[in-house]
Each structure stands twice: as structure tokens, then as C-alpha cells.
UniProtKB/TrEMBL annotation:
Part of the tripartite ATP-independent periplasmic (TRAP) transport system. Keywords: Cell inner membrane, Cell membrane, Membrane, Transmembrane, Transmembrane helix, Transport. Belongs to the TRAP transporter small permease family. This is TRAP transporter small permease protein.
């Protein structure tokens, strides 16, 4: 799954870089530009950001507090993972509501639904919530001394 997301990120970055570069050349070299590039780059950047958040979370690219005792690390980790899970639920619900509200509105140039930008939060919040559920399960069911999940876990 991670490789697929990284591939999607690579394609999004390549497309975004190419269209913006071409538009800059056209704008400054030929005093003309492609109108849809600004809008398309905005959509691509939003999706790039949210898919990148999933990959970063899969890598466990978050901070670790090592100064606490193992018992306190475990407590703090339980609290942190629980809060992240709750925030993912709120983010997913809010993005779904906003996307549905704005789905009938369309962007002026491309004609894409505005809700397409807001719905980008939904797969991110679901993916991160699933990762958090897995981490919470391992944290709760593990009886040995506390250890932070390894990267990629």
C-alpha cells in the first residue's frame, strides 16, 4: 500500500512540476498562460498534501518523548493515539459534510466540483484512523515493557 501511495505522490509531483513550469515559461516567455493550470495545480497540491500525510503517518514520522519512564511513555502514547483517533473521526466527518455541501458548486475554469478538494481529507482521516486503531490494539494487548512502534509499523 505504501509503495502505491508513494507512486501516486511521485506522479502528482511530476505533473504539478511540469504544468507549473510550462505555465511559467509561457507566462514570462510568451506573455500567455494556460488558465486552467492555476486551478489544476491547486487541486493537485491539496491531494498531494493529504496523500503525503498518510505516507508520513505510515512511517511513524512523529515525535517520541524518551525522557519519560516506560510506564509514563505508555500512558502518554495511549492518550496521544486516542486523541489522534478522535481527531481523525472529526476530520473525516467534517470533510465529508463540507464536500457534500460544496459538491454542486464547480470551479470556474475546469468545472470540477469544489467538494473534490474537501473530500481529500476523507481517505486521509480513514487511513490514519486505521493505522491508529492498529497501534492502539498493539499497545493495549502488549504486556511487556513499552517500546515505541518502529518506523514503518
Amino acid at each position: 500500500m505504501k509503495r502505491v501511495l508513494e507512486g501516486i505522490l511521485a506522479v502528482l509531483i511530476a505533473v504539478l512540476s511540469c504544468i507549473v513550469f510550462i505555465n511559467v515559461i509561457l507566462r514570462y516567455g510568451f506573455e500567455s498562460s494556460i488558465l486552467s493550470v492555476d486551478e489544476l495545480s491547486r487541486y493537485l497540491f491539496v491531494w498531494l498534501t493529504f496523500i503525503g500525510a498518510i505516507v508520513a503517518f505510515m512511517d511513524n514520522a512523529t515525535f517520541v518523548v524518551e525522557k519519560l519512564s516506560p510506564a509514563n511513555q505508555r500512558r502518554l502514547s495511549l492518550l496521544t493515539h486516542s486523541l489522534i483517533l478522535l481527531l481523525c473521526i472529526a476530520l473525516g466527518w467534517g470533510s465529508l459534510q463540507k464536500a457534500l455541501q460544496d459538491w454542486s458548486d464547480h470551479s470556474p475554469i475546469l468545472g470540477l466540483p469544489i467538494g473534490l478538494m474537501y473530500i481529500a481529507c476523507l481517505p486521509t482521516s480513514v487511513a490514519i484512523a486505521l493505522i491508529e486503531l492498529r497501534r492502539l490494539y498493539h499497545l493495549i494487548t502488549r504486556n511487556d515493557s513499552f517500546q515505541q512502534p518502529q518506523q514503518g509499523a
